[in-house]
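Researcher: Following up on the earlier apo prediction. This time include the ligand. It's adenosine-5'-triphosphate, with the SMILES given after the sequence.
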Amino acid sequence: MNAVATPLYPEDRTSAPKTAAADPLITCRSLNKVYKTRSGDAVDALVDLNFDIAKGEFISVVGPSGCGKSTLLKIMAGLLDYTSGDIAISGKAVTGPSPQNGLVFQQPNLLPWKTIAENVYFPVEIQQGRRAVNMTLVRELMSMVGLKGFEGKYPHELSGGMQQRAAIVRALVQDPAVLLMDEPFGALDAMTRDMMNVELLKIWSKHRKTVIFITHSIPEAVFLSDRVIAMTPRPGEIAEIIPIDLPRPRPLDVVNTPEFGAYAKRLRRLLNANEDIAG
Ligand SMILES: Nc1ncnc2c1ncn2[C@@H]1O[C@H](COP(=O)(O)OP(=O)(O)OP(=O)(O)O)[C@@H](O)[C@H]1O
Ligand SMILES: [Mg+2]
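Model: Understood. Below is the ligand-bound prediction.
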């Protein structure tokens, strides 16, 4: 599927697409999710979400705890049913898990009895057999995220940041069209997190994945994204979708520029305003 797709953006692109393409990779229309609790109550988690995402875009989703970010990601991943509306990836309605999605969660969830290398190719191995594993890609990705030489180690021999890098490699080894990430760096210390952000952008610009990245961190969202989807408190609606028009590649010290500060302030105001309404 993405092996035959024509890249939408040239390899050397330095700035992001401002809006979704006319032919978007992901379309979401009037999406609603109502959870039914055991006691029979209905919990409105997502209300009337509408957005398009172009191939190759880096999109972050920010919003207060409980606003439905993970719910949205699980729906996109085909792990959770939605109540009404439409969501499609590559023109196909999302009806269940698909190998076109790579998933990364807050915890790396590596299998402790397998080595790092075995962990990263395990999903491809069980779905398609060992021969289908692209070992060249495994080596390239491991090296890119600084895990070269750790292939034969076990997860407990690696730091939290290294384990999370392995989890990202595991998602990418499947060559997914879309990388769905739910607070992947939330458990890491600030310095490691900065480093991981830079690495993620390197991977993104090299491998041209479409990324949906959930975070609680406004600076992280601004630093990484082409556009940021800001959500209201529960029930989660889209407050605004903000294009981040900062040039790429983005060095870490872009965070010290007035333009960066203005985006962060705008998002903070937006999220606080909605918090006040909710309160
Ligand atoms: N299985 C479930 N049954 C009932 N309600 C649920 C279920 N899962 C989530 N919810 C509710 O749906 C809402 C959205 O939850 P979700 O986990 O998507 O929020 P979130 O934005 O990811 O929060 P956080 O930032 O804390 O991770 C919350 O109010 C939550 O209590
Ligand atoms: Mg969540």
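Model: Confidence is low (pLDDT under 50) at residues 1-19.
Researcher: Noted. I'll compare it with the apo version next.
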